Amino acid sequence: MAAPEAGSGDDRSRLADRYRRFARVEADGVSPRYAELAMAVSDHRPTLDFLATLPVAKQQPNLLFAAWRAALADGAAPDGAREFLTRLHADPAPVRAIMLARSNQMNEAARCGVLVPLLARIEAEEARPLSLLEIGASAGLCLHPDRYRYRWRWPDGTEHRAGDGHPEIALPVAGPAPLPARLPTVAWRAGLDLNPLDPSDAADRTWLQTLIWPEHTHRSERLAAAVETIAALPAAERGRIVRGDLRTSLGDLVAEAPGGTTVVVYHSAVLAYLPSRDDIDAVAADIGSLDVRWIANEAPGVFPDATARWRDEIGRDFALLLDGVAVAAAGPHGQSLRWFES
Length: 342
Hints:
alpha/beta, eleven-stranded mixed sheet, 40% helix
């Protein structure tokens, strides 16, 4: 593989563990193709050497596999691990260029299905409309929870519905979730991202589609519908997504929210990508110092103390936290919601 000099043996060992864990914990039973590819990478010295030449933030499995797909004319996933490794080994330059230029900015509108109950609860508690500020907003699809339609299904088959927008977000729900009679009122919305994407831009839309795991056609269809909904809005109604770092830019953006509203800062699958535990703790402290309500939707290891009581119940899902307190387990792509019994 023609690539710059690789990192140390420790780098390769760390990367092998990361890809093995992705295969066994994140992709197993969810994306058989990506599970196969990740296991193959974990045992393939040339590919580990290639990854070790990249910045740590660019070494994620989903970024590698999406960049590989983007490098193909039709965006298809490789047929199998042998084809993937052989072709990557033969010419890594196109994949490398995409990995350096792009980020793993999966923008899953279905996550609004686990956020809406908490947003409605906050609005009811504060008795004021909401100002939404999403960290890691990507193309801003999760800045519009009031513009979709929801259908939550209880274990006994009954359903709870809210909203009349498009697309419909349907998911199973269990436990005493505070499902809303109506969607919350949003007075202002803004996002923060290192590299904002534009839902009106064809290249950005294609990249968002490429980030979706190859077997998940339902997610691809929902993404296309959500992008259509948001791209059709006047620019003034989409909310502003600011290019910036959550470690330095959050306070200034919070200050822009209009008075008479409750500012809600929220994020999904963002803090796990920060460089260190100290960075995560510093961001949590910063948010806690602001006059905001805070919703976190992250892997449980991001907040180990707050989620310790519920680790068995959370399993491979995300932990949903309100103001630092774990309240539910949520599917990583918004595919389920299990509210904890108090």
